[in-house]
Amino acid sequence: MKQGFRQCMAWLHTWAGLIPGWILFAVFLTGTAAYWRGEITAWSRPEMRMTDNGPEAAAMAIRELQRIAPDSPSWFIGLPTESDPLLRLLWRAPGERRFRDSVLDPTTGRVAEGGETRGGEFFYRFHFELHMQPIWGRWVVGICAMAMLVAIISGVITHRRIFADFFTFRPGKAAHRSWLDAHNVLAVLSLPYHLMITYTGLLTLMVMYMPWGMQAAYGNDQRAFFAEALGFSSPERPARRPGELTDIAPLVAEAIRRWPEAGVRRISVSNPGDANAGIVLGRGDRHDLAIRRQELVFAGTTGELRAATGNSRPAAMTVGVGYGLHFARFEMPFLHFLFFLSGLAGTAMVGTGLVMWVAKRLPKKNETRHFGIRLVEMLNMGTVFGLPMAMFGFFWANRLLPAVMEQRAQWEIKVFFAIWAVTYLHAAFRPGRRGWAEQAVVIAALCLLLPVVNALTTRFNLGHTLMAGDWLMAGMDIGFLCFGLFFAWAARKLWRLPAPVAKPARAGRLRESEA
Amino acid sequence: MALLALGLAYPGFLLLALAMERHHRDLLGGVPLPPRRRLYTASGWLLLGLSLLPCAALWGWTFGVVAWLGVLAVAATTVAMLSTYHPRLALIAAPLVPVPGVVAWFGFH
User: Fold this and answer.
1) In a domain, B73, yes or no
2) Which of A193, A234, A256, B108 could form a disulfide with A342 if both were Cys (CB 3.0 to 4.6 A apart)?
3) How many Å lie between the alpha carbon of A420 and the closest alpha carbon of chain B?
4) Which residue does chain B place closest to A170, by CA atoms?
């Protein structure tokens, strides 16, 4: 069965692609959505957007944190940028490990009331943690990403006519032939992206997946490694004497003088009420390809500059470029959009691969389907169509849940998972083409109606945002409409062609599966 | 201008497609003779190479190369899709797509 190198690779490609395929699809799709992480979060609370990210905004944030969390050992402030225009506040309550977070309301200068949401953060975290315990989720995603790398390389080897079939797409041939063409075109034409994104994805968590180099050189002192290699600064211990925090505005002004283009993105304050308080200003990362920490460390009470960190040696820059390519945080609309398109191509590549596995094994006439094939089809439908449905449902939940609600952000996530679970159930009861068509109709309706729901629940309707040049809100609406049209087209195509006669069998006959 | 990069990469890939028997048959009919095929290949690669220049000019070499790879993917996908569904349009578009890019490029300078 497995003779020859190429057959062997084909077998590897089939199974290294299928087994982690559903998780990979989810990772790709939520990761692609996370390219708009800031925009999605801003769409979720459009009233809270602000443009000021200078000394004034920083001072306002500090005042609010002094009011709501004076005893906290640690504050973080995320200053707004064009693509992520919310001012974020994070603080740790004394004795707690987790950070609480909120958004500053620019009109009141206080934390925003109501409308809590995870927004784009949810997709971003899901992309590498799958909403599991972070450590478990990251390992699962890491293992799947390694399988992805195996699938990409074995796929290139398997693909016999990679150059001859470079532009070949033959719709309307035998089902599995068309799917194979689509899979090949999506894979080959964006191959540099697929390789890059998988590899750099592993790179972002390399210290966790392969800690041995770091352990050999630094023993158990991880902090020393991070400080030296990545320019992390660690806070001083508290003096346990009260101290007054200096005015932050001149410090931010000084940082902006040093970084006129990049500006300040992150502010962290350690032990704010203590004599040993520290203030760290982190440089913005929206204008460089290489993401690396560059920080100014100030003494919190005197405002004296203690250190300027940042490592621009070749190794650090290499890692920084890897991070930069993966996160694509740069604010360059055209390039950013290309990354988004490539992400969609990657998602579609995984999706077509999954669908092809079933298409290749469609039962011939009067043949019953094996249980395994029906299981795979159910998982395919609930993942490939169910996940986008759940994601658009998440946006609906954001607009329709009451603004003031206990655990509101959690409810949005519950809606997401509830819809996703229902799609698997639906897939189990409605296998085959008809089931796919029905899910496509629902997704199309969800997408096409989102701008309507948005117009009814906020004052940011598409007409208004287009006239005002509010491209963030208008772009989200236009994006929803584009997805809606795509799924409507898919639904029409799926509905029209005759459903294949496939009677679900109770006792499926074993079919010899060939890779 | 990003348009110019796309406008160069698209005909570049179309020429590479024309250098292949199957696509030549679908698009123009018949099989190209070897010298003509070499011409297609060489000019195709030349255009792809040239499309790097506007990317680099617009975004610098760091971002330019990254953007160029994205531009190539978009252009190649467009060639594959158009020559499947609208082969005539695929051919007609090839000499036209660089025009807006060139106009925009020289209009801006």
Assistant:
1) yes
2) A193
3) 31
4) B84
